[in-house]
Specification:
heterodimer, A: about 400 residues, mainly alpha, Amino acid/polyamine transporter I, globular, B: about 120 residues, alpha+beta, SH3 type barrels, 4 helices, 7 strands
Chain lengths: ~400, ~120
């Protein structure tokens, strides 16, 4: 019974982790411009991240080490420094985008410009990390995050041609704007397969003191959590295709266009639901990315860390998330467009994948860490596939950014 | 056991299982006519910087000397004979609170963290 509760909580938490500003914005853009045609990118991204998250959880439960620990210990500092620097940079931009998404939600709700909200949002996030525990953040974010299910309800109410939607799950060539199509596919993949997600998950497993008895729960949480997250992202895409596309809004280049998606279905409450979904999903992700920065640095250098410790017992760790949060608020305060920053940072995430995914192949096959819980043939095939995908993304992202970027 | 594979970069914990750092460097003693012997492990930013090259190592040493005095401008060392257990982590029979390894974190606690309410 207790395990079942933990599994449901874990599932809800991973949905919260999955759905953030990046997956919402990229799905909405793709739906408006290409209808159901890009659903396959969400499906592919979701399957890939499911495998990585399961492995990150298994690695942590068996070895009591996180993925970041593993990369440093197994490959040495001179190799670790590259994923460290790149992930710190990518996470920083993603964090900035999440703060921007929350600030946009605040602007929609109050009419006060988003620039003014960046620092208050960062302060609130910092306060929660400073005073709160891991459990509070995990449970609070995940329960509130259930509001994003309104997109699924909306998609069902709209009665889409389900057959056509299922057809979108199979990759197909674009009929128009080919470069933009592929750029959006890359951004969607980047938004789904985020290093912060699986790295955070492995740290969370340590925070929640998982051991080998959690391997079954881990599998259930990874599988169900990521599929629910992917389902919501598909729902966002469907709603965007049916509402925005039907209103002739083919180019989403402003967050202010997005509430229209739900207003069409739920009226005024649609506006409220949209603002709440955006605010909660982005704020929750901001908390997780900020913590992940601190986890990464502390684990990479072997410091004492833990969100359940008081800041005075792990000052180095606490200082990292403090600095990260306030620095990440600066670009938004200066007026950088949150939507463009989001799309750009998702593409950059996609390009950075090889650095963080290649280590999985070694770590999850290393008996000293995972003993007899090594990867089987299927998991190894999945890792090799994601690595190959990561290298393709790394090569095509920047050319596509130039020709197909929005 | 292979030094570079099984010792370097591993997590160091003290006798209370407190995370001290990672093994950032190894110190070996060359002996006439006999194989070299590991005498200590090194921890800290200077040891790390040295692994990126001689110049980064000098910069780090200079920076540390400026920030916390000339006497601190070398890596922290833990004698190899203090080693207690070598597994995925390496445990040393020391109490990290009685070393200078956490000096910067202590400084941070006293001068920054404790001044912020709620710490």
């Amino acid at each position: 019974m207790k395990k079942l509760l933990e599994i449901s909580l874990g599932v809800v938490t991973s949905v919260g982790g999955f759905l953030e500003v990046g997956s919402m914005a990229t799905a909405a853009q793709a739906g408006a411009m290409f209808g159901f045609q890009l659903i396959w990118a969400i499906v592919l991204g979701t399957i890939s991240i499911t495998f990585l998250v399961e492995m990150a959880g298994r690695f942590a439960a068996v070895s009591h080490h996180t993925i970041a620990d593993g990369i440093r210990e197994r490959f040495g500092f001179t190799a670790f420094i590259w994923p460290l620097l790149v992930v710190l940079l990518v996470n920083f931009m993603v964090l900035s985008a999440e703060i921007g998404g929350t600030a946009i939600a605040a602007e929609l709700a109050t009419g006060i410009g988003f620039q003014w909200w960046a620092l208050p949002v960062a302060f609130l996030a910092w306060l929660l990390l400073w005073k709160g525990t891991f459990g509070l953040i995990e449970k609070g974010v995940s329960l509130l995050g259930l509001v994003t299910f309104c997109f699924v309800v909306g998609a069902v109410i709209l009665h889409p041609e389900w057959k056509q939607a299922a057809g979108g799950a199979v990759p197909s060539l674009p009929h128009h704007d080919a470069a933009t199509y592929w750029f959006m596919a890359v951004s969607i993949l980047g938004a789904s397969i985020s290093p912060y997600l699986f790295m955070f998950y492995s740290s969370g497993a340590i925070e929640d003191q998982w051991d080998e008895s959690y391997l079954g729960a881990n599998r259930a949480i990874a599988g169900l959590g990521m599929s629910f997250g992917g389902t919501i992202a598909v729902a966002v895409l469907i709603v965007a295709a049916l509402v925005l596309g039907a209103h002739g809004v083919n180019q989403v280049n402003d967050y202010n266009q997005l509430p229209l998606m739900l207003i069409q279905i739920f009226g005024f409450w649609g506006f409220v639901l949209f603002v709440a979904s955006l605010a909660i999903a982005c704020f929750g992700a901001a908390l997780e990315v900020a913590l992940q920065q601190a986890y990464l640095v502390a684990q990479g250098f072997g410091w004492t860390w833990g969100e359940n410790l008081r800041p005075r017992d792990d000052p180095g760790f606490s200082l990292v998330y403090t600095l990260t949060l306030f620095l990440a608020a600066v670009p938004i305060t200066l007026g950088v467009d949150p939507l463009r920053l989001t799309i750009f940072s998702m593409a950059l995430t996609a390009a950075s994948l090889p650095l963080t995914v290649v280590p999985f192949l070694f770590l999850l096959n290393d008996e000293r860490y995972v003993g007899r819980h090594r990867n089987g043939v299927i998991s190894n095939a999945a890792v090799i596939f994601v690595i190959a995908l990561g290298f393709v993304l790394a090569v095509v992202t920047f050319p596509l950014q130039m020709f197909g970027g929005t | 056991m292979q030094l570079l594979r099984d010792i370097l970069d591993k997590q160091v914990v003290d006798r209370e299982q407190v995370k001290v750092g990672k093994v950032d460097g190894l110190v070996a003693e060359l002996r006439q006519g006999k194989p070299p012997r590991v005498v200590a492990v090194e921890l800290g930013s200077i040891a790390l910087a040295r692994r990126c090259g001689a110049r980064p190592g000098r910069w780090a040493a200079w920076l540390v000397a400026r920030l916390s005095g000339k006497r601190q401008a070398r890596p922290h060392r833990i004698a190899w004979n203090k080693v207690r257990d070598i597994g995925v982590d390496i445990e040393f029979d020391i109490d990290v609170r009685r070393t200078k390894i956490f000096a910067w974190q202590n400084w941070l606690r006293d001068h920054v963290v404790d001044r912020i309410p709620g710490a």
